[in-house]
Amino acid sequence: MHNEPDFASETPAVAGLTNPLQGLANVLAAIGTVWIFAMMLLVVADVLGRNFFDAPITGVAEFAARSVASIVFLQLAAAVCSGRMTRSDFLLQFIARRSTAAVKALDVLNVVVGALLFAALAVIAWPELVEAYQSKEYMGVQGVLTVVTWPFRALIVMGSAVAAVAYLGCIPSLLRQPSVQGAQA
Questions:
Q1: pLDDT at site 175
Q2: Which end of the chain is less congested by CB atoms within 10 angstroms, N or C?
């Protein structure tokens, strides 16, 4: 396995004190984590209310469904900054035995493509956010429970944009990383 970029310094929490991008990523990830905990409590309360009191909490399923994507996008930048985005390095291990420079080039290509993909996602999602805001789009049943959708869409746009910037922030660290001969298994 080749060395991962050390964009996050020693630990992401400590790096957030000196690196504003890592700090923002940490804050967004913390919000996502608290949101997961809140959703867990809400779902448990809904299940208990439904089974023991025949009184479910209205809108939990709809809110939870929208929350999943929002939580994922809140935590993307932290995953990028800490080098924990999902990837398969089988091919990189094979290439590293022959050329560490090629591995570094592929790593840079990986972060550039990641940045472009998340930037494209932010740009594509932006008009939908604007439309949802202007039309006051909501989910739920009018008269029972309605929740506007634009905040959820805004989190997707913001999370994508911050992830794109986080990917670009990885490039200097990758270029400074020394080339190591051979791959470690």
A1: 85
A2: C
